[in-house]
Protein: Acyl-CoA dehydrogenase
Amino acid sequence: MDFAFDERTTELRERLLAFMDECVYPAEETFQRQAAESGWSPPPLLAGLKEEARRRGLWNLFLPGEHGAGLTNLQYAPLAEIMGRSPGIAPAATNCAAPDTGNMELLAEFGSEWQRRTWLAPLLAGEIRSAFAMTEPDVASSDATNIATSIVRDGDFYVINGRKWYASGAMNPGCAVFIVMGRTSQDGDPHRRQSMVLVPRDTPGLTVRRGMRVFGYTDADHGGHAELLLEDVRVPLDHVIGEEGGGFAIAQARLGPGRIHHCMRLIGMAERAIELMCARALSRTAFGEPLARQGVVREWIAEARVTVEQLRLLVLKTAWLMDTAGNRGAHTEIQAIKIATPRAVETILDRAIQLHGAGGVGQDFPLAGLWAAARALRLADGPDEVHKRSLARRELKKHMSAGS
Amino acid sequence: MDFAFDERTTELRERLLAFMDECVYPAEETFQRQAAESGWSPPPLLAGLKEEARRRGLWNLFLPGEHGAGLTNLQYAPLAEIMGRSPGIAPAATNCAAPDTGNMELLAEFGSEWQRRTWLAPLLAGEIRSAFAMTEPDVASSDATNIATSIVRDGDFYVINGRKWYASGAMNPGCAVFIVMGRTSQDGDPHRRQSMVLVPRDTPGLTVRRGMRVFGYTDADHGGHAELLLEDVRVPLDHVIGEEGGGFAIAQARLGPGRIHHCMRLIGMAERAIELMCARALSRTAFGEPLARQGVVREWIAEARVTVEQLRLLVLKTAWLMDTAGNRGAHTEIQAIKIATPRAVETILDRAIQLHGAGGVGQDFPLAGLWAAARALRLADGPDEVHKRSLARRELKKHMSAGS
Amino acid sequence: MDFAFDERTTELRERLLAFMDECVYPAEETFQRQAAESGWSPPPLLAGLKEEARRRGLWNLFLPGEHGAGLTNLQYAPLAEIMGRSPGIAPAATNCAAPDTGNMELLAEFGSEWQRRTWLAPLLAGEIRSAFAMTEPDVASSDATNIATSIVRDGDFYVINGRKWYASGAMNPGCAVFIVMGRTSQDGDPHRRQSMVLVPRDTPGLTVRRGMRVFGYTDADHGGHAELLLEDVRVPLDHVIGEEGGGFAIAQARLGPGRIHHCMRLIGMAERAIELMCARALSRTAFGEPLARQGVVREWIAEARVTVEQLRLLVLKTAWLMDTAGNRGAHTEIQAIKIATPRAVETILDRAIQLHGAGGVGQDFPLAGLWAAARALRLADGPDEVHKRSLARRELKKHMSAGS
Amino acid sequence: MDFAFDERTTELRERLLAFMDECVYPAEETFQRQAAESGWSPPPLLAGLKEEARRRGLWNLFLPGEHGAGLTNLQYAPLAEIMGRSPGIAPAATNCAAPDTGNMELLAEFGSEWQRRTWLAPLLAGEIRSAFAMTEPDVASSDATNIATSIVRDGDFYVINGRKWYASGAMNPGCAVFIVMGRTSQDGDPHRRQSMVLVPRDTPGLTVRRGMRVFGYTDADHGGHAELLLEDVRVPLDHVIGEEGGGFAIAQARLGPGRIHHCMRLIGMAERAIELMCARALSRTAFGEPLARQGVVREWIAEARVTVEQLRLLVLKTAWLMDTAGNRGAHTEIQAIKIATPRAVETILDRAIQLHGAGGVGQDFPLAGLWAAARALRLADGPDEVHKRSLARRELKKHMSAGS
Structure:
């Protein structure tokens, strides 16, 4: 057992930290201002940052294997944390932003030669964006067997009908392709009925209806969250990813690394919140005493630190398990980090907000926005409750077989 | 001791409930749509609702004494709860919306004959709106002695300089007057240094700079929350409310009823959330079981009910104490409801959101918006922590004198 | 609506408070010492206190109707709170201690003429004690339909077989009779299968096996909690209370007032804890500052006050509902107080313990003992979770019929 | 970074697990019965277990360096967890029980040749026990500068006067020596005023007054917690440990490993609780459904698992830091585990108790006793609040120097 970073991680952390200090933080204010004016398009300064990141060898770090930087999950995780300190800019600048990351992984692992050439290549180059359309407004989508969008074969085509929402990134005009999850079969094994198909943005029958909000935010700088209407949308059969009926399995495979990324970015957000909390506590005085000397404020800071240390270790261990025992061997841990991280970071952000007074809920500090992002992650990929339910079943099973 | 409503309350509750059923709930969807298009102005349909409320004798119910409906706090409180079920519409339609309510109370109690004629009369008639400017971005404003805006006498005028933000209602173009809190003195008793002055919207030197956000929301349907710049703003001496140096005392007097209103509306919001939670739980199925039969969902519903029953009683008792023992006699209770209510209702709303999945955080359900309102009330009138600190001091004092 | 005590309550509160000050608190230390030496028997000084309480007209206050003091639930509740401040002495001294109170209520309401003469009379006179045997070690007894003890008719007798535990009060040698709940029928309506029978202590076949502990405490001063073995215990048919098959209904009827008593005593315990907390905070210094000035301590005191005010109102309202709408009309509230009170008081006690350092967990302060009592009440009459489950079902039903 | 155990740890874990399965668990019932009858002496069967443990090479595992097994903190920590699964037996059987462990470390590191020969040797051999007397009833002892016991030089002797309590282990008649912390100086650096002296049990003037309780428990199987009176107790000058004035520094050094041990044993207790919870949930049925299928029960099990995984990693990392960066370099983490672990394990135990119904609070399951042990650890070595305060100060300092 050893808790030190390896050499490559150490080197990349330093390089990334320098990029944050030299390029990302100084750009935040302008980014914010441009974002307010650029509608659903990314702020103009992003292009320059992408170029710079690429130049510095900070590009596609998330992607293992030959197509990407080739890092292990354990090596990439600490980098994702650093990116999370400025989550509107850093992931996008380094081509490590969701949902593209998950989509690229999926195309790298399950995509056909043609699919990789057509979609993976420009994604890896940062030339296009993509979206993932799974959640539906009309069913409890955390139970994948509820998915109602139909994908029906008709000759050489699939015909898709359904309604999706909270397809993140899809409002960005640069989002060129959607990965759509739907049912290709009504019977047989309930986990072999779903398939994933690629739907180019300009396919007839596909309507991007509106941007969904998250606590009042449009999240335009992340490409928003679209409601999609699919009416007799036709795509050729070779647009299915992997094989027909493989949708559920692919979705599962996609989840593991995504959770690591999300959770590490959340930890980065929490570290940012602690910094802001300390800075505020050291600079404000109320009732004759600096906030930094008030017991309740100290309690919050201490709790935040204690929480973050635990979360980080759990996520890193999960990354290590994924690297050494595979997605399946890390199943419990992948659920555990999804349960533990968003809510804990939400609490830290909530207290940071409280410490900032009215300003905390507004647009002059990043806290309220970060809070909304953390809150939404308690629902993304299924509400925490679904994961707890499943984790408990697994724990109970362990004790059944143990005969206790 | 008796927990039944008196006759007048019972009659008014029924009348108000009928108004909600017949006029308010049916208008919600249109209101929402108009709000999205009307910028900082109130949705057009509000005017008709105001007329109707007035016709039904549901007007200025909040105001005790001759100028208003003459209800006690205990009689009005259950009506505020009902209004809170549709907080964007009902309070405004009945001329019972903050911050006008507090401003009208203040003018009714401390305003001069001239001030009442000029500002109170049109406010009571629902012809104009008003705002209250206390919080400042640069100081911990919950400690009123920190307030930095200066109000300096210059001959027959006061000259005001300072910066305020989160002046609720001030973005509404119909907001004709601001009550501004500032320092008229640099020495003497620290609680006699502040004064309140009336500043008409069109006074030179007053700039409404921008609308502040609350978790991404503009709160435009409530008139937003303005940042104000006051640069050498001059108002005649008769624009001071009460007497010079009386600002702190007036602010204190203003707080009591305001807290009752806020807290009862929050309870109405919580009841709405419970309704939505039950409806959702009864209509959705996940993993083969309706949500309504799942243990964790039941836990949430039970907890919500147990919480709301306690909160309501505490707020009603506080109203009763204010009626029978005065603002001062109810001091501890007024702090207690401010501490207990927003956070508890926030938790109920959070769970209702969780139960609604992705939809919960978006614009198709009122939950995320209500949540943001509840969250902001943990900061409005000073963060909870300030109130706990003061309440504890009082409790400790009690035990000191008891000799224990 | 009116939150003031009526005249009779006010008068009795004063009389009881005087008794506490003059007789109970001064006796606490000696009581504690005697208790440590008197085994399962009550400390000798109790007899004198009982006499004195009776002389002062503070006797059987809990019992409505002709047999007792004739108070309503709402009138008795505030008296129970006061007794709860010294829960080892005051309830026993005034003949208002559980489980006798519930047993007397039950005999007064459902007992035959003969049962009342034989058992109720000496209980009312404080000459004997009694116990209630419901919980069984082998089944989830909160679900009464699980009760396995069998009560089988055999000619003029019932023959009882089973095992019970946590029969509170039964270790006291003065405990002369047990009310035993068992199954008289294996079929028919599952809520008509149970009956309650009176079993005198000296009945052959009844063995009091051992005293059960509560977090290491024997609770000997309350008569302990016995494990009972019933082996072919025979009692005449007239020992059934009410009618055969009526056990479940009687148990339900017994619950309402018992919960009011328990909850109000808990509130009295919480008030005692707040007093101790304040006294400690005012007298100790750490790190150069009296505890009373430390933010976290203030937070605890404030939270305790805010919590207690809410709980008390909820319990009082429940008492009022029981008086005006009956046990059935107060069903939800009776569940709500059982859910809300023990855990909240437990938290207050826990913080009071923390403030007392090592002493808090030991025998020199009453806090750890009170804590254990509060903790046990989260399980008594069924765990909180059972009540939440049922309360939620009721809430959901309300919304089903409302058509939402 | 690597999360796998090294070879030696793996081997020792297996050996220890076998010892638990073959010797410890089978002895639990008898141990419990003997403990109830052996007063303050250890249950007779302990001697045989000690012999067996020693024979299996499971002896003094906690002690690094030449005197003990020579394991690093990181190697010993997982073994302490396993021992914590049966905390009344396993640590004592392997000579790894507090407070001897801390006392042995201290003598090994700071003791003179003579002290090591006289006291360390028989402790290492498991022939005697020892106690550590720091806490005083009359002052907030978590602030070491408050310690009031005086140690005054008088010729060749120290004369000690004071009162101590909660000296764990001291009620055991085999406890042959006490390490007493007191003040040797009234002025100078406040952290150089304390010294530690060895006081043999039979020294005149030393009275072991009584056993303190922990929530009703005597903890006799751990040697209880004594109140000590020291009246003109005289010991030769060579009984001081390290140097005069070094008490505070030695106390600090003693804390680090002790916290690791306590926290890992707590984690073992939590694992035991999870096992019991699962076993109970799988074997009980209420309201027509096994507890294992009820949502709230699953929630508890999942939360317990998620919590334990995080805690374990944090403690292991702290052990690693102590091994690689020293006690001082691990300061924040040592505080963090003390804050995070006891309370979290307390919650897990509380839920396990709740799941066991009345049995949970009693003596037939180990849960209530384990709970009391966990609860007491929130106070041992100073209440959590003291550690949070200090941890926050350190965090704030970090940000001051960072200039943010």
